Structures are given as structure tokens and as C-alpha cells.
Amino acid sequence: MQIIESFDTHKSAAVNGGVWVFAEQQEGRLNSVTLELIGAAGKLSDALGVTVNTVLIGDDVRHILPTLFAYGTDIVYLIDAPAYHYYRTETFAKASKYLIDKYKPEILLIGATTTGRDLAGAVATSLNTGLTADCTSLDIDMEKRILLASRPAFGGNIMATIICPDHRPQMATVRPRVMQMS
After folding, report:
1. How far apart, in Å, are the Cα atoms of 79 and each of 8, 109, 116, 119?
2. What is the number of alpha carbons within 13 Å of residue 116 lying toward its C-beta?
3. Residue 4: pLDDT band with limits 50, 70, 90
4. Of 53, 133, 135, 150, which one is least surrounded by beta carbons within 10 A?
């Protein structure tokens, strides 16, 4: 277990890379899709031989940390300040981009909720990387270390698998209630 406090470059150095999960919370209550994503991230990280890292942004949210660790997170990047009491796209996207630029995740998973979709689009745009939306299945191409993000296409009649081979992090939003909690 490791907690990396935000915006303090003198704290402990974290392992770069890894599979990251955005821990969505509102008023200090964790959205259950986060726990599903930690389970999915665990499978992906095992295949890649990297850590599961979670980003937790909010105000007075330290009480969420034990739950994140209990479900399989190895490292939490914590940004805890009054400025993050309510979700606002610009402030959360800037904080996320700061952490991503500093610690360089391979993959970032975000719940396909109203908040998650908003944040994912803003972060992917600011990083100039791809984003696969509304995934229902995730896997790894081990030969190329590429996320295989699958989602229904053409009215749900077929599954499309989308890759992002040239940019990092590889990003995906994942529908709630499609992944198993660990």
C-alpha cells in the first residue's frame, strides 16, 4: 500500500506506469463502478506485470482509502482539498493531467457514468490520446502491450475492439455493472 499525496514533488516517488483507475466519488461516497474497475485493472495489471493505481480526487475523502486498498489497489494518488469538494471538469481534468504527466500510466480506466464520461473526454483531449467509450470487455494484446477495449457497435449487433497503439495512456470508459468486483 502506498499513498502518494498530490502536487508535492518531495514526497515518495511512485512507480511509473501501471494500470490506473479513476475513483469516482460524490460527497465522499464511492461509486461502485470504481470497485468493478479495480477488479478489471487487477487482471490487466497481472498480465502486464505492473501495479494497480487509483486516482482519488475530492475533499475530505481519506476515509475511502481502506476500501480502495481492500479491493486491490496498490498505490493511491490522492488529491484532497476543499477546491475538489464538487466535481468540476476543469479542476478535475487539470489534477488528473498533472498526475498522468508525472507518473505516466499505461492504461487509465474510468467509469462510464455522467461524471466519468465528462472527465474522460476532457483528459483524453488534453493529453492528445485516444479514448474508447462505453466498454463492456477489456483485455491485453501481450505481444504489443496494447489494451483491447471492446464495446457494442451497430446497435449492439456486433462487438468492436478498439486499440490505441501510438499514444499513452490508453484510455477507456467502462459501463457500470459489467465487470466483476474483486
Report:
1. 10, 18, 17, 15
2. 30
3. low
4. 150
User: Please, what sign has the CA dihedral across residues 38, 169, 31, 87?
Assistant: positive
Place 9 in a pLDDT band, splitting at 50, 70 and 90: very low
Cβ-based neighbours of 182, under 8 Å, separated by 6 or more: 35, 38, 39, 42, 71, 72
| Separation of alpha carbons 68 and 47, rounded Å | 20
Strands 137-141 and 2-5: unpaired
Res. 15 pLDDT band, cuts 50 70 90? low
Cβ-contact 119, 93 below 8 angstroms: yes
Distance CA 49, CA 52 (A): 10
